[in-house]
Amino acid sequence: MSQPRKIYEGKAKVIFDGPKNGTLIQYFKDDATAFNAKKFDVLDGKGEINNLISEFIMKKIGEKGIPTHFLERINKREQLILDCNIIPLEVVIRNIAAGSICSRLGVQPGLKFREPLIEFYYKNDELEDPIVNDSHINLLEWSTPSEMEKIKVFAFGVNKILSKLFFSVDITLIDFKLEFGRVKTDNRLVVADEISPDSCRLCDTTSQEKFDKDVFRFDTGDLVSAYRKLARRLGIILK
Ligand code: TMP
Ligand code: ASP
């Protein structure tokens, strides 16, 4: 059989043509990047574990009524997804202050927000994903006000589902990033990309042990071991 055609290569994934019209294959690489790829490494096993974790989380949020691009996992590194036009935004929800909000606004790390905080970043590596607001998004025509309302409802909905899911295994969801797409065949809004410890901040509720990409960003341990530990806690893998 001939190799599927490569459509797009990102920092952590490659997208290939799918077997049927309206589908794509999402391949998880072992590449780890941080700080807009200023830091880079190849970590054996990262792609496989993120494929499993993202499958698990996409299914969980799909079961609770939030539509996603996920169709099925094909093998260790690949999943079948719906072909979407990706909205060029990174939608970040923060429950507890960490990362860029602390350096940008001088917020104390660890501050628990009274309610989840939402932010939008323009997905553009050359510009280093600048923060934007609803006015930029509307007037630069990345999305419409009515679509943004839906995006916010879905993002806060995902936060509720995931906070509860992680809480049930003694893990705190500090913050996370979502991407959205419009399905090419019917223009439906869906959660796209991946939801994995690459795109979340997660820590043990008691010990504060970290299970996310900060382990790689700040060289505090072995990233793949941390991700595997998270997957074991969630019952995705046995050992
Ligand atoms: P930040 O504190 O660096 O803005 O990150 C907020 C959340 O978004 C955190 O869970 C990591 C995630 N994230 C991504 O998934 N991709 C990115 O490019 C960045 C900067 C953050
Ligand atoms: N995802 C971005 C990168 O790969 C930034 C980050 O996650 O820190 O460089």
In short:
With 239 residues, the chain is α+β, with helices and mostly antiparallel strands. 28% of the residues lie in helices and 33% in strands. α1 runs parallel beside α6.
Uncertain segments are none
Count every helix, treating DSSP H or I runs of 4 or more residues as helices.
6
**Any ligands, ions or cofactors bound here, and which?**
thymidine-5'-phosphate, aspartic acid
Global morphology: globular
Helix fraction bin:
25-40%
N- to C-terminal separation? 34 Å
Largest sheet: 7 strands, antiparallel
Question: Please, what is the average pLDDT?
Answer: 97
Order of helices and strands: EEEEEHEEEEHEEHHEEEHH
Residues in β-strands, percent: 25-35%
Rg estimate, integer Å = 17 Å
Find the count of extended strands (DSSP E, 2+ residues): 14
Task: Quickly give the structural class.
Answer: alpha+beta
Description:
- The structure is a single chain.
- The chain is an alpha+beta fold and 239 residues long.
- Helices cover 28% and strands 33% of the residues.
- 33% of the residues are buried.
- The model has no long low-confidence stretch (mean pLDDT 97).
- Bound molecules: thymidine-5'-phosphate and aspartic acid.
- The site of thymidine-5'-phosphate (TMP) has 12 residues, from helix 2, strand 12 and strand 14.
